[in-house]
Design goal:
Strand order of the largest sheet: 1-2-3-4-5-6-7-8
Order of helices and strands: EHEHEHEHHEHHEHEHEH
Distance between the termini: 28 Å
Structural class: alpha/beta
Largest sheet: 8 strands, parallel, barrel
Strand content: 5-15%
Oligomer: single chain
Bound molecules: 2-phosphoglycolic acid
Length: about 250
């Protein structure tokens, strides 16, 4: 299965910064295209502009969330058809930073359905907190999130992101990542049958060029969801190259 490296820009990127980042990614790709799929998820305000800049580059563009309704009286929200209208083809849903602010498996489930109905591919985030891991509940928490957040016949992407590894510079051991990805795969197959075998399971949480080679080549790791390091075109592309095996000198990023 081809790997996917996705950049979650979060609430970063004024127009000039976003343009410079998209330009940097495009330029790096011309120099050395990685053998994996790439996706960037900028803030809504620059989504259409970034999609325009990356048009034809092969880099996908997505939103960072969407509402479950198509339109209506939901001040401040953005719907899945609006994301499609801005030329996004993907959307991150259920990120832990949003779950921490009130999203539940049920709301994520509703948003996933809306995203799919609008023609978007959802990247659904799951992952335990540090307290849950210490208490030995990580597998149960993630199983519950997979069961509760994904509609029947789910055909998107899942991102396993331990909450305590996000933005902290800490990562689980390679063994723990491999074990959790195997667990997520089991859950996907249990709930979605054959379709569950085709879902890419990304790892997210402090992925950097220096650790990507190990983390992204573990069994059942189908790529990465990258926060901080995706704000540097060179780091983002270095992670993409690491995802597809050791970079040859000719493929190193300037
Ligand atoms: P990080 O964020 O790479 O900065 O840890 C990952 C994420 O939140 O998706």
């Amino acid at each position: 299965m081809r790997k996917l490296v996705a950049g979650n820009w979060k609430m970063n990127g004024l127009r000039a910064e976003a343009a410079a980042l998209a330009d940097g990614i495009k330029a790096g790709l011309q120099h050395a295209p990685p053998g994996c799929d790439l996706l960037v998820c900028p803030p809504f305000t620059v989504l259409a502009a970034v999609a325009g800049m990356l048009d034809g580059s092969g880099v996908g563009v997505g939103g960072q969330t969407c509402h479950s309704e198509r339109y209506g009286a939901h001040t401040g929200e953005v719907s899945a058809p609006m994301l499609r209208d801005a030329d996004a083809h993907w959307v991150i849903l259920g990120h832990s930073e949003r779950r921490a602010e009130g999203e539940t498996d049920a709301t994520v489930h509703a948003r996933v359905r809306a995203a799919v109905a609008a023609g978007l591919t959802p990247v659904v985030c799951v992952g335990e907190t540090e307290a849950e891991r210490v208490a030995g509940q990580a597998n149960d928490v993630v199983a519950r999130q997979v069961a509760g957040s994904l509609p029947h016949g789910f055909a998107g992407v899942v991102a396993y992101e331990p909450v305590w590894a996000i933005g902290t510079g800490r990562t689980p051991t390679a063994e723990d990542v491999a074990a959790m990805h195997a667990h997520v795969r089991e859950q996907l197959v249990a709930h979605h049958g054959r379709g569950g075998t085709a879902v890419r399971i990304l790892y997210g949480g402090s992925v950097k060029p220096g650790n990507a080679g190990v983390l992204l080549n573990l069994p059942e790791v189908g790529g990465a969801l990258v926060g901080g390091a995706s704000l540097s075109a060179a780091d983002f592309l270095a992670i993409a190259h690491a995802a597809t095996g050791p970079a040859s000198p000719a493929l190193s990023i300037p």
